[in-house]
Amino acid sequence: MGQRVPHVTGYLTEHFADDAFGTLAGYRARGGYETARRVVTGMSPAEVIETVKASGLQGRGGAGFSTGLKWSFMPAETDRPKYLVCNADESEPGSFKDRILLERGPHQLIEGILIAAFATGAEKTFAYVRGEYAFPADCLERAVAEAREAGLLGERIFGTDFRHDIVVVRGAGAYICGEETGLLESLEGKKGQPRKKPPFPAQFGAFGMPTTVNNVETFCHVPHILARGPDWFRSIGTEKSPGHTLFGVSGHVVRPGLYELPLGTRLDEIIFEHAGGVPDGKKVKGVIPGGMSMPILPAGQLDVPMANEYLRERKTMLGTGGIIVMNEDTCMVRVACVVTYFFRDESCGQCTQCREGTGWMNRIVERIERGGGESEDLAVLLDVAGKMEGATICAFADAAAWPVQGLLRHFREDFEAHVRERKCPFPASFEL
Amino acid sequence: MVISEAVRERIEAAKARFPQPRGALLAALHLVQEELGHIPPEAEREVADLFGLRPVEVHEVVSFYNMFHSESGGRHRVYVCTNLPCSLRGARTLLRHLESHLGIRCGQTTPDGRITLGHEECLGACAYAPMMRVDRTYHEDLDPERAVRILDELE
Lengths: 432, 155
Ligand SMILES: Cc1cc2nc3c(=O)[nH]c(=O)nc-3n(C[C@H](O)[C@H](O)[C@H](O)COP(=O)(O)O)c2cc1C
Ligand code: SF4
Ligand code: FES
Description:
The structure holds 2 protein chains of 2 kinds. Chain A is of the alpha/beta class.
């Protein structure tokens, strides 16, 4: 526990094997907090925002929105307190990168938060860590205490007027609290039910104040961009999707784990060269490329560069970079059972289409898996999924519809075979 | 009173960290549950008093979040992750094995009150599957034998 280090490292994770890197002294020994010092003592907030904009950094929480642009939405002149939220709710099945960033590099995250706070004028950051991440939250809390002790948080940071503090908040088990406005509700001590937008968080966020929400990994890129410049960052990855990212590889591979690689690295390269391919000489059947909400790709489409501009052409997305690999024995109806159960369980229930749709999809695929499906069921599934898209308060309903649509797009035959044979024809598949 | 003075003090301290005291409600419920093992209706009423809320408002929050328990359980709560990446690597086989070893079904508590067994959605350990959470601690890269040994060592 807590000793998880990526198999391939880069600028984000190169020191993660060194336990000392998690401490203030060890982080400083590697030059830590020098970039924040230079930024706070030598740059204007507008210059920082311009630099991050110019780098092309896109949020790593799933939606891929421009980070610099998001920061620029924070009102510059206001008497109201402004806040940042660090989204460490990480609950997207297949994703575990934020956890490792918290456990192995908490000071890198704090440095990124400091720079973001300086740029946006935020006086406080709420770091919302999912409740199950007790150990990662402890690691962050310890680092925050060290930073506060050393004057890196609090008043007059680096001898300037800049002040900032970080409050570590623990969630209590609800996937929907990762959605940024569900998170804000939870932060305020309420049920984590997403808010209608507008107003957006930059106007009306945490406790009604202007707020910027960013993912853990997004913050972690920031010190490197400010240290080495936007041109350096843009020289990595693709033209439209610059920088490294952390790919989490799980499922049927020889070396599951975390891989820090440039955006645009090909999916088949990640699976076969880095993660060692499928064990026992088996073939791949399908791969979910970006966490469970993202549509699956069949074995014939793994030659895709892992960046949204390419993945979109194949009707899927990078999401959180969680790559789930399934071997040739896998029953895709069972996959649909697991996926729809999850979304049914985690729907917050505010919108009828989502609450009813997730339950409906789950009941249908479970019936098909048990051999009781009818041929009309597939049309009903697609109809329900289609009605959930774009019709609700938050994107959860879309995230629940997409994987089902993807499974039917590429593996319709698996569903039809169940209906035809009135049983599951994949006896060697993973157990349900 | 079911909530101790010590926990009340910690709840007051937690309130001071937020722009509005209610921000500390989740923290308060975590503290109460740590002390009592679960959050009974009396505790909800006392928490409601501490936050100037109605008991039903506290109850809504308790029931919204998976980690808060209204019912008492075993001394240890054990959860096997059964989401897709873990299931692909044998999580459900592991869960069945633990059920038969403990002689209970998922969702039940051993008769000696030692362990409540459950399953959970993705816990962020997908590459280290199968895995289980025992109270605050993750146990990863499990096989059934090692998982059983871990459970057998629980008090
Ligand atoms: C259902 C749902 C769940 C989400 N879960 C997370 C999450 O666990 N972590 C996260 O950073 N973003 C999550 N997001 C995205 C956030 O709403 C938000 O876009 C993100 O935190 C912004 O940070 P970024 O711009 O740095 O990516 C989720 C979105 C949806 C719709
Ligand atoms: S789409 Fe689903 S999760 Fe999102 S607000 Fe509506 S009911 Fe809740
Ligand atoms: S699926 Fe089990 S930890 Fe992610």
